[in-house]
Structures are given as structure tokens and as C-alpha cells.
Predict the 3D structure of the following.
Amino acid sequence: MKEAIKNEIQKLKKEKNAVILAHYYAPAETQEIADYVGDSFYLAKAAKASTADIIVFCGVSFMGESAKLLNPDKKVLMPDLTADCPMAHMVAEGKIEDMRRQYDDLAVVCYINSTAELKCRSDVCVTSSNAVRIVKALPNKNLFFIPDRNLGSFVAKQVPEKNIIVNDGCCPIHAAITRDQLLKQKKKHPSAPILIHPECEPELLEISDVIGSTAELIDYASKSPLEEFIICTEDGVDYKLITDNPSKRFFYPEPHPCCADMKLNTLESILSVLQKENNEVFVDELIAEQARKPLDRMLELGR
Ligand code: 13P
Ligand code: SF4
């Protein structure tokens, strides 16, 4: 059954000159058939560089929106339009304007996990793999980091020369992982280093060995001579970790962190969207014009 779906997806992809992009948190079967799999930064670059007529984006809505902003003339489809990231909305109404009134030289640094409406009121976007580099490169002294307090606090620690004010949003999946859950795994596997995503709480980052985006954590584990790792992020990364490192062992906090929205990107929904060409992503042109600027600036500074 699954094989028939995969074959049909491959056939339609060719016929329609479509490309499939998937985040590492998408289901394993989706990563298996995707043309490009990666973290948010890699996928934004892949979307921008694509020459396909149709981009099927297996992620959550802010990713589909970003792909559309970077490719206004292409058809961007999402297997499930309800796949959303709760954190992408977590900036209180009027907060950005309040901060701009308080600081003349303020730059609003917007984690890519945010709506197009938030991007269009920001100066630059960042992802978890380029945030420190981009913040360091900005000329402004005062920065307002939205929406993620945990990535914002992590960046603030790495760049103490700037005044970074952090918005109080968070990823409900990463922020729910507790220090005790992590310590339990450490007790069971004392020689395994802890590899953690910066969306986790600071008290977890403190006891970890490597902090990075999904792609950076996978890369670290793949290059390391060690055999066992404690992975503190969404468990979709397991597919790539195991595929590339069949002899190594990976342990996760219990229960495994799982983003239900990312898991909506099933083979069945990909096939359906390729057949019907529905679930197209649209961004209001006035918003798009403004929201594209911080994304383009990120791609420029992140090069
Ligand atoms: P990265 O893709 O930057 O690792 O971010 C993880 C994430 O939560 C995406 O929603
Ligand atoms: Fe959003 Fe968290 Fe899911 Fe990433 S893992 S899409 S930040 S809810």
C-alpha cells in the first residue's frame, strides 16, 4: 500500500515538475521520499534556489509561508494547511511598537518560527543555526528577540556586548522537556553526551554538551567517534540519525518530544495535495512585500 503511494507521488512529481521539501521533524516515511530534508535554514535556502513549478512543503505554516515569500511566482502547497506552530503567534499585540518607542536604535530580530505578519514588522529573521552569527553582525546595540524566549536567552548569553530583550514565547514541545527527564537518561547512559536544541529551557542547556539546530545536532552525532548520544529535541530527527549512523544508539527524554503538527505531513496527504493541487499557501501582497525583507536580509547575512 505504502509502496503504491510512494510510486504515485514520484510519478506526479515528475509530471508536474514538483519538488518535496521536508523538515527533520516530519514523519520518517515523508523524509524518505523528500527531495530536500533539513533544518529551517537549509529549507529556506532550498526553497529560494528551487527551479520547480510546485513546491510541496512538509513542515508547518510559517515554513510554507517563508517558501512562498521567497518564491512569489511558484505554487507552494502544504500537505495539511492546519499544521501550525503555536510559537509562531506568541508575540502580544502592540509589543513590537512599544519596544520601538523605548529604544531609538532597536532592531527586531525575528526567529523564522513566526507568522508573516510578525516578520513584516521585524528587521531581520534568524533560525536556530544562524541566530548568533546574524545578531553579532547587526550594527544595533538594542535588540528585541521574538518570539522564542529560550533561543533569545541563548543568543543573549553568546553575545553579551548587545542589550537583547527577549519576548516571552516558547515552543510548547521543547519547553515541556524537564531537567529530570534529561537527567534520567544521563543516569542510564552516563558516557553519552547530551545534544540539545536551543528552544529548550536554559536549565537544560546548562547541563548539556552540544547546543545546536537540528542539522547541527545530527552533524555532530554523525562526525563524532562516540557510539551513544542523548538527543534532546523532537524525535523526528531519529530517522536521519539512524539512517546515517546505523551502528550508533540515540536516546530521547521520555516521553519522546513529538510535534503533532509536523506529523500531519503524511504520505497520504502529500499524494492528495499533488493530485488536487489544493492547500496552496497565499500571503497577502502588502504583507509579503514587507515580510520578504527580513528573510532576504537573513539569507544575505547568513551566507
Ligand atoms: P531548526 O529547524 O532551526 O532546527 O528548528 C527547529 C524547529 O522547531 C522548527 O520548527
Ligand atoms: Fe513549532 Fe515547536 Fe513544532 Fe517546531 S517543534 S514547529 S517550534 S511547535
Q: What stands out?
A: The chain has a mean pLDDT of 97. The first helix runs from residue 2 to 16. The longest strand covers residues 18-23.
